[in-house]
């Protein structure tokens, strides 16, 4: 069986399960632009190394618990993981796949893993929502203390909060302005006076590769410099995007500029199109950050018109933004009228091009679900209290103003990696659009909602 047929068979028969891991065992490679089906069509990856080289340390178990980078960053699901993939792995192995380790694959490190049913219950956050447990304590010098914990799994404390987060993709990394949801792996360049542009991306990724292996894979010793370099070189060479849409078919056809190969040549530098004035080129902010489907103007295809209308909404639909920590408070402006691209400003990519963690309310107590821990934080001086399911960047900086702040992710290949937001709050792109609609009172019509979803699926 050829590599291409083997890969397609694995996707169809196992529901997009451990494709890359199986190919690695077979000593095979994944061809460039191999299609990986998803609910909206298919995504494809291009590797600068000529093919996805499964001999790379990214695919090797370098720790003590059987995991590799690919365990949580699978090419079949946008280089992340999804509940569907996790469920397939659990069913195929009875919960004995290395993904389900107690250090972070279970709801608590003390979870009962003695039987299949016990493992299923203990791994419910991973199985049902695709969430990995990240354990981080309150810094000793923090401006706040942990005043209360409501953890349904009976584990979290000030020494280690249980934070349930989605694994971020390990592709399209050249567009990053911060590494990890809370930026904890971001290594800054001390020679750059503008800290919003000071990320040393390669140093950050080298640090992250080692930290993930020592932490998630429980390695007894750090990676060698050569292993770190090989992993980072591999990741930095990956470009992925949705290329085929079930409604409009090829996203780079008839004047469209979607797909992987167009993204491969997308210009980028830190601060490009930044609305807060950090663009080193001095160019003014352009809210028309997405132009992928401008070529479909005048198309007679109603589905292409829907995608185009969604792009126009993303670029130009007015949004009255208030109460966004990292934006309104930092600028001392109670309300800002902007668009989606005010925060998703990187042209045709959609993350923030400079370091700008924001709190849009995803981890607010009002949005807590019963399966999430809830933390009460108290300011050590003022006594003010905040309840949150995840303090975010505040656990890295120790600063009260950073509670609930997270970076915005890259938006390309969204259709491959539901659910969305750091905690999987939105099960699909429709729910993600609904979140913004209710949070900011945008007032999308039913047609506008459908058009916005069509556009996001096409990324």
Explain this structure to me?
The protein has 13 helices and 13 strands. With 459 residues, it is an alpha+beta fold. The protein folds into 2 domains: 3-82 and 166-362 and 406-457, no CATH class; 132-164 and 363-405, no CATH class. Strand 8 and strand 9 (249-250) form a beta hairpin. It is globular, with a radius of gyration of 21 Å.
How are the elements arranged and paired?
Blueprint: H1 3-14, H2 19-25, E1 30-31, E2 35-38, E3 41-47, E4 51-52, H3 83-93, H4 116-122, H5 124-129, E5 132-136, E6 144-150, E7 161-165, H6 201-215, H7 225-236, E8 238-245, E9 249-250, H8 260-264, H9 302-316, E10 319-321, H10 328-331, E11 336-338, E12 374-379, E13 385-388, H11 394-397, H12 429-440, H13 446-457
Antiparallel strand pairs: 1-4, 2-3, 3-8, 5-7, 6-12, 8-9, 10-11, 12-13
Please give a handful of descriptors for the protein shown.
13% strand; 13 helices; three-stranded antiparallel β-sheet; disordered N terminus; alpha+beta; 13 strands
- Please work out how many helical segments DSSP would assign: 13
Q: What structural category characterises the helix and strand content?
A: alpha+beta
The biggest beta sheet reads: 4 strands, antiparallel
Radius of gyration: 21 Å
Shape: globular
Amino-to-carboxy terminus distance: 32 Å
Which range does the strand content fall in? Answer: 5-15%
Could you tell me the number of beta strands? Answer: 13
Percent helix, as a range, is: 25-40%
Low-confidence stretches are 1-26
Oligomer: single chain
State the order of secondary-structure elements, H for helix, E for strand: HHEEEEHHHEEEHHEEHHEHEEEHHH
Count of folded domains: 2
Please state how the strands of the largest beta sheet are arranged side by side.
2-3-8-9
Q: What's the rounded overall pLDDT mean?
A: 94
